[in-house]
């Protein structure tokens, strides 16, 4: 009996040493298990949103390469791809996104029970959720192909872009099922961990340690995160549908002269947001074009007085910075171990860069003026997913924390039995440092997405000239969803604008009215405008068809 | 930390290392055999071969390439549109068909014009030499001598993907048409299908 006890003591001391060794190893590896991803990304995002695009892209390439074949790689590659696209290096951007796609496909094609997953779960049990590979949120998987399509358009490869739009549609169609599978898998892990914790607890004389989200929701921090994300999320989008992706899909169908499928997209967009004037008229225009049916409330609405597939300019305005997960901490009383602190991820929201864009162009020698309309709110899209993931994420986090607390209690108990008070204090110090180091939230996410997307379209001007001005001041937007800015021209001093040809290649920085001159008599032109901040706006022109 | 999990993971990692170590060196395979890789989401080389073979047999058997006037039909390769969610080069199919048509002796194909521009730009380029003193003008190809096509081969490849539980499936639908350019009428049409299925394993690396 004494021999057995000594064996257990030795095993526990070895476990403590193993934890300490592992902690030291991970501390030097730049892994998100120790330093949360959001904190690690801060200098990169400062460069990117500060308009230092080439530097941001270069640094992100280096960082992503450094994290190659780790669970963090995808979270870096996505930002690398966006930064390269924004900086105008489309080939490298495609490489980064292709690698991201490979990583996601690899996760999805793994066996139901696989050694890598089991290994990651073991890592997670002794560290935190960052030990699990980042698989990408639903929004990531959809936007990945959207950005690839933009890259292909920039490379004048329309066929390639259309392939990506098809992939984006496939992803959007299946994303709800993928999400449900992920949640079901997490529920199974939670149940298994609950069971193991109960066993460990009873082995050292503790009671039932089962945790449920309902119980955890009594904690004010958790409740606040849950309620806030519920408030921010937009139920109308439903099932992780991203209205920008649906709109982009419609543009793809228009490029292929496929009004039938474009109509399906416009109808779906109208169902998502019936008050959106752009969705209404797009739906009416496509339906009138092919004799599709309209709901009674739209029957009298006039369609656009130009076709949507020929000699048309679409402006895609990616505005501001999308939400990013940041680390927050909360205290909770756990069964058997008492008070424990946990770090968990919560979205941080950023202000819009501009309220919209005012565009001017000439049609039949008359100057026309119009402004962009919000079609997709990424705060809402991402919050909706977060809100749905939160119950399993928090429960898993707390159960994993409880596992570590129990392991720590076992180790301290074993150290006391084997080495007296000195051993116990030593074990407490090691496990304390260990718990402190690994109390890191999983804040990995795609941080270079926009806060919102606005769109407008108009017939291609005869002279090819389009001017635009960024707008400021807060008022309600077209859809009445608030926190938008009013149509007042931005008065900031002019920036470092380059000539039009340079702008086409590299994008340009500027703060006031600019003019674009279209070069080709294309059927469909896409003008991509990215406002990274109030100081940094770039645009790219894709003359597609 | 539960020991069972460690043992299970350790066992699986050990097995994976053991089996994963048994790789093979790069080697050539017979393109006429069945040893090529098969993936669900892609059109693999065997799929191209089988589809091209069926399409060629169907086209040649239809007899539409034969002419009453004894002249050979001039065929242009138009566009085979990629409507799949894969980045594929449809020239693999059209080039195989073009070569088979030439070999059959029933038609000639033109490289001076195709759906995506000239296959061989030289036909147009050499005619620009008419203004170039460097060349003996008697040897320069004259305008108005290139032969225009009588027929055009075009098509589309569509992919439909389905997933149910652990199973995933891709259905590729190839649709090819041959158009008489004089009348604009399709004189031959055929469809070819490739369906592939895979099941995600329960256990693995």
Question: How is this structure best described in words?
Answer:
The complex is a heterodimer of chains A (545) and B (205). Chain A is of the alpha+beta class and 545 residues long. Chain A has a domain at 2-237 and 322-437. Chain A has 15 helices and 13 strands. A 5-stranded mixed sheet of chain A has the order 7-8-2-12-13. In chain A, strands 5, 6, 9, 10 and 11 form a 5-stranded antiparallel sheet that branches. A two-stranded antiparallel sheet of chain A has the order 3-4. In chain A, strand 9 (465-475) and strand 10 form a beta hairpin. The longest helix of chain A is centred in the C-terminal third of the chain and has 60 residues, at 378-437. Chain A starts with a helix and ends with a strand. Chain B is of the alpha/beta class. Chain B has a domain at 40-63 and 71-110 and 147-199: ABC-type transport auxiliary lipoprotein component (Rossmann fold), CATH 3.40.50.10610. In chain B, 26% of the residues lie in helices and 29% in strands. Chain B is built from 4 helices and 6 strands. Chain B has helices spanning 3-20, 45-62, 91-104, 122-125, and strands spanning 73-83, 107-109, 151-164, 167-180, 185-199, 203-204. In chain B, helix 2 (45-62) packs parallel to helix 3 (91-104). Chain B is elongated and about 90 Å long. The A-B interface holds A 15, 109-116, 118-119, 121-122, 125-126, 159-160, 162-163, 166-167, 170, 174, 177, 196, 199-200, 403, 407 and B 1-2, 5-6, 8-9, 12-13, 15-16, 82-87, 159, 161, 163, 166, 200-205.
């Amino acid at each position: 009996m004494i021999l057995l006890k000594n064996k257990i003591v030795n095993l526990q001391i070895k476990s403590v040493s193993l934890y300490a060794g592992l902690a030291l190893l991970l501390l030097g590896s730049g892994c998100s298990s120790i330093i949360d991803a959001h904190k690690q990304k801060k200098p990169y995002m400062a460069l990117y949103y500060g308009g230092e695009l080439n530097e941001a892209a270069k640094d992100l390439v280096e960082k992503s390469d450094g994290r190659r074949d780790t669970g963090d790689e995808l979270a870096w590659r996505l930002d690398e791809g966006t930064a390269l696209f924004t900086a105008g290096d489309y080939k490298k951007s495609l490489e980064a996104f292709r690698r991201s796609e490979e990583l996601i496909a690899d996760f999805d094609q793994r066996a139901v029970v696989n050694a890598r997953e089991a290994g990651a779960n073991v890592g997670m049990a002794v560290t935190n959720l960052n030990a699990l590979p980042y698989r990408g949120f639903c929004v990531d998987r959809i936007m990945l192909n959207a950005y690839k399509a933009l890259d292909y358009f920039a490379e004048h490869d329309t066929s390639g872009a259309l392939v990506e739009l098809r992939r984006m549609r496939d992803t959007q169609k299946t994303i709800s099922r993928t999400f449900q599978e992920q949640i079901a898998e997490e529920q199974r892990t939670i149940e298994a961990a609950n069971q193991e914790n109960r066993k460990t607890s009873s082995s050292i004389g503790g009671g039932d340690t089962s945790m449920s989200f309902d119980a955890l929701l009594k904690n004010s921090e958790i409740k606040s995160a849950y309620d806030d994300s519920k408030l921010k999320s937009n139920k109308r989008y439903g099932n992780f549908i991203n209205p920008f992706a649906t709109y982009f899909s419609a543009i793809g169908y228009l490029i292929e002269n496929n009004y039938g499928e474009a109509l399906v997209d416009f109808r779906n967009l109208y169902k998502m947001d019936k008050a959106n004037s752009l969705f209404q008229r797009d739906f009416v225009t496509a339906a009138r074009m092919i004799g599709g049916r309209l709901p009674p409330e739209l029957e009298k609405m006039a369609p656009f007085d130009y076709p949507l597939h020929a000699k048309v300019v679409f402006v895609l305005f990616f505005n501001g910075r999308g939400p990013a997960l940041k680390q927050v901490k909360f205290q909770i009383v756990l069964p058997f171990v008492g008070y424990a602190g946990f770090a968990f991820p919560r979205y941080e929201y950023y202000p819009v860069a501009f309220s919209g864009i005012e565009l001017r162009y000439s049609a039949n020698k008359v100057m026309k003026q119009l402004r962009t309309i919000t079609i997709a709110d990424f705060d809402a899209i991402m919050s909706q997913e977060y809100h749905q993931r939160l119950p399993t994420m928090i429960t898993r986090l707390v159960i994993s924390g409880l596992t570590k607390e129990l392991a720590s209690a076992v180790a301290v108990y074993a150290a006391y039995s084997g080495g007296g008070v000195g051993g116990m204090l030593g074990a407490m110090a090691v496990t304390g440092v260990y718990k402190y180091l690994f109390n890191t939230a999983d804040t990995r996410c795609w941080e270079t997405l926009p806060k919102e997307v606005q769109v407008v379209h108009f017939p291609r001007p005869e002279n090819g000239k389009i001017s635009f001005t960024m707008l400021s001041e807060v008022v309600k937007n077209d859809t009445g969803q608030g926190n938008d800015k009013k149509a007042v021209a931005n008065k900031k001093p002019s920036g470092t604008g380059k000539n039009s040809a340079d702008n086409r290649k590299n994008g340009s920085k500027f703060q006031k009215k600019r003019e674009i001159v279209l070069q080709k008599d294309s059927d469909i032109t896409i003008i991509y405008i990215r406002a990274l901040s109030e100081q940094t706006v770039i645009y790219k022109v894709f003359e597609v068809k | 930390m539960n020991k069972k999990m460690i043992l299970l993971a350790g066992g699986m990692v050990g097995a994976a290392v053991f089996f994963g170590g048994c790789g093979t060196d790069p080697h050539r395979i017979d393109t006429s055999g069945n040893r090529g890789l098969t993936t669900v989401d892609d059109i693999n080389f065997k799929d191209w071969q089988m589809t091209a073979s069926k399409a060629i047999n169907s086209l040649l058997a239809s007899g539409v390439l034969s002419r009453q006037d004894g002249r050979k039909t001039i065929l242009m390769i138009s566009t085979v549109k990629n409507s799949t969610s894969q980045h594929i080069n449809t020239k693999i199919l059209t080039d195989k068909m073009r070569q088979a048509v030439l070999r059959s002796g029933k038609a000639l194909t033109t490289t001076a014009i195709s759906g995506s521009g000239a296959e061989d730009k030289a036909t147009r380029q050499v005619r620009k030499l008419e203004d170039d003193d460097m060349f003996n003008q008697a040897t320069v190809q004259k305008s108005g001598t290139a032969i225009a096509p009588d027929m055009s081969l075009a098509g589309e490849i569509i992919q439909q993907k389905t997933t149910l539980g652990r199973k995933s499936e891709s259905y590729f639908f190839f649709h090819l048409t041959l158009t008489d350019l004089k009348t604009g009428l399709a004189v031959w049409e055929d469809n070819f299908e490739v369906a592939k299925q895979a099941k995600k394993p329960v256990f693995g690396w």
